[in-house]
Specification:
Elements lengths: L3 H11 L13 H9 L10 E6 L2 E6 L13 H20 L2 E8 L4 E8 L7 H5 L17 H10 L5 E6 L2 H19 L2 H10 E2 L2 H7 L3 E2 L10 H11 L2 H13 L3 E7 L4 H20 L3 E4 L2 H4 L4 H7 L6 E9 L24
Parallel strand pairs: 6-7
Antiparallel strand pairs: 1-2, 2-4, 3-4, 5-8, 8-10, 9-10
The protein binds flavin mononucleotide.
């Protein structure tokens, strides 16, 4: 069985800080490496990348979809948006501006790059290799007003806005929704089977696939896969998960909900971009983030949650808690060569 040391070495090698090219030539491979470091639902990395002249096209990989938790593929397209946002900041570091568009014909995200000498490396670019979801409890300390304002600004996007929930009463209501979501999800056989299929119970399993939810990132002990799959039936209960989530939410300084005015693939991409920008800004400020999406994922809960948020025609898309706390071991990624596809010939 591979050791945690091998796991950690692989995770840090993926996030190595490469020097930027000095000759001004666009390094698209480096842009794709930065893109793959983005968040993705269940760490499915549901993307491939295609370099076409002055653009990088990010295509959905539907073989990696999660029909139980994400039947309409909205999380899948949000994940593509996360990857696109990393390209934007990595391109700026190389002296290029990036224009992100959704192409409905091939359901892809096209990032068009053009030289902009005034662009440069920003704090958000430098956060790409350090951003992570920290799924454990935080230290309960509040976040100062200047940092909150920076986070809120970073979370604004095209037809997307963040709603910041900071009071204890708001957090208590969030806990109530998350608890109800856990009951629905964890008593659903299809949801459980799908979730378990993406969990990597030991470093060897995680290193073999380079994807999925590694137990190491959430502080779980490494176990042989067959034993873990046998035990998880008893361990993963609605009550246990609800208690953990409640503790984690209470330990957070606040919660942010990303809402969009539209609810289609183009909008989902923009939501992913807004989340990723928020998370990069949080990382730059040494603030941790983790998703708590149950009220958005559980269809019957969503309208109630949206009316509690007093949304008027807008759609709740993602929910994230944030706060101060320790970092966690990083998640893995697949090799870059596995996600680059050749451009189709122009006929
Ligand atoms: C659209 C989307 C939905 C996600 N939903 C959840 C979620 O409900 N719960 C959770 O713990 N993490 C969620 N994640 C976080 C992923 O598990 C995480 O990004 C992935 O494991 C890679 O880890 P990293 O972000 O630390 O690199 C989500 C990520 C994305 C992009």
């Amino acid at each position: 069985m591979a050791s945690t040391k091998e796991y950690d070495q692989a995770a840090s090698e993926i996030r190595r800080l490469d020097a930027l090219r000095a000759d001004g030539v666009l390094d698209t491979r480096e842009l794709i490496r930065c893109a793959t470091l983005a968040a993705s639902s269940h760490n499915t990395q549901p993307w491939t990348f295609c370099v076409r002249q002055d653009a990088i096209t990010i295509l959905p990989d539907f073989t990696r979809r999660c029909p139980a938790v994400d039947p309409d593929d909205s999380h899948l397209f949000k994940s593509l948006g996360c990857a696109a946002e990393n390209v934007v900041h990595a391109a700026a570091a190389q002296g290029f501006s990036a224009d992100v568009r959704f192409n409905p014909d091939e359901e892809s995200v096209v990032v068009v790059l053009s030289r902009r000498p005034s662009a440069g490396a920003t704090d958000l670019y430098r956060a790409i290799t350090r951003r992570q979801c920290v799924k454990t409890a935080y230290d309960g300390t509040p976040i100062g007003q200047p940092e909150l304002e920076k986070l809120e600004k970073a979370g604004e996007g095209r037809n997307v806005r963040p709603i910041m929930l900071l009071s204890e009463a708001q957090k208590a209501t969030v806990i109530d929704y998350v608890t109800r979501g856990n009951v629905t999800q964890l008593t659903d056989r299809a949801f459980r089977d799908e979730l378990v299929s993406w969990i990597r119970f030991n470093p060897g399993a995680a290193l073999r696939t380079g994807d999925g939810l590694s137990g190491r990132t959430s502080g779980q002990p490494a176990l042989p896969t067959w034993i873990a799959k046998w035990i998880i039936g008893w361990v993963l209960t609605p009550k246990g998960q609800a208690d953990t989530d409640a503790k984690n939410i209470r330990s957070s300084a606040g919660v942010v909900v990303f809402v969009s005015s539209q609810n289609d693939k183009a909008a989902w991409v923009e939501v992913g971009r807004a989340y990723e920008r928020f998370a990069l800004q949080a990382t730059a400020l040494d603030i941790r983030t983790a998703f708590i999406n149950q009220p958005v994922e559980v269809r019957p809960l969503r309208p109630q949650f949206e009316s509690w948020l007093k949304l008027n025609g807008e759609h709740a898309q993602l929910m994230v808690r944030f706060g101060h706390g320790a970092t966690a071991p990083f998640s893995l990624r697949r090799p870059i060569d596995d996600v680059i596809v050749p451009a189709a010939p122009i006929i």
